[in-house]
Amino acid sequence: MSTSRLSRLPLSRIARYLACGIAAFAVDFGLLAALKTLVGAPAWLAAAVAFIVSTALSYLGQKYVTFSHSGRFASSIVRYLVLLAANTCVTAFIVQIFDDVWGLYLLGKVVATVMTTAWNFPLMQRWVYASGRQE
User: What's this model's pTM, rounded to 2 decimal places?
Assistant: First the structure.
């Protein structure tokens, strides 16, 4: 099966989406733990910074690997940044609540990631990378 045919399979796209997401999550999670424990940053700040840094990897992976988006960079990056802003706020809020209530900021990060992952795939497919896809 050719690469172009493989990229059209929904399961293949979901697998690529998850692989890119797992790589970005590893960067995000490691940086969050380092900023909180080694630097002593508050959980909300560490979560926000780690999340923003990891999105560069996620953006490029999702754009080129998952969605094969060949559209203009400007259109997809603006939409991605809007989604990033919403996800950053949600992530920082959840991580801080988990830290304040239970002292489990890393578990909060996992919960926030599961939540944002669930709505990111359809939003990326239908909005962020909707125009300019090669399929």
Answer: 0.72
